[in-house]
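User: I'm putting together a teaching handout on how sequence relates to shape, and I'd like one worked example. Could you take Metallophosphoesterase from Symbiopectobacterium purcellii, show the sequence you're using, and then write out its predicted structure as tokens right after it?

Assistant: Happy to. First the sequence, then the structure tokens directly below it.
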Amino acid sequence: MREAVRYRSICGDYYRHVWVVGDLHGCYQQLKQQLIARKFDERCDLLIAVGDLIDRGTESAACLALLDAPWFISVIGNHECMAYAVVQGENSDHWRNNGGDWYFELSPIHRHSIDRLIHLSASLPHVLEVNVQTRCYVIAHADYPSARYEWGLPVNVGDVVWGRRRLLQAQSGDYQRIEGADRFIFGHTPLKKVCAYANQIYLDTGAVYGGPLSMVRLL
């Protein structure tokens, strides 16, 4: 049975500021520095992540623990999907080959606590709709694989968390708006800088590879 896309909607007007951050990949210290620089206030601000909290960086556990923070929301990324598949009993080679070795180096007690967070990550939305004042933002890890956004539309999960076709076409000069929302924000593909094509923003600037950890403010 094919997995259904999970949608979630939030109202950003309840917060002072709403920020969206690119792929963390275990770069917890960089995130802390960015939040301090922006005077992020956990009491009244909201941070949204585009997924891929874990793997490749040195602080995957700390980034995954953000799921317990009331001021933090994330969509699910392909690395969370790989992690969940392994804790469900699937072969670990694919995850290990993509930065998952940190998990297997944990002590049994620590791994047990991480398993809880990995199970929590498996319930994250694939698509997050954020309504801020009169604007509608849609956040997903890799793509929203439709020409028009509709709440609850049954798009392909694999494209949402793994897809690069839209970005590759845009980089070659072939891009167009996705109708149905004002702005779409994605991560997944490391870029040298934040890129915008039509009404789509690509926010992964390769923090784990030495690039900056990029953030945009919605409110």
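A couple of points you could highlight for students: The CA atoms of residues 39 and 153 lie 37 Å apart. The first strand starts at residue 7 and ends at 11.
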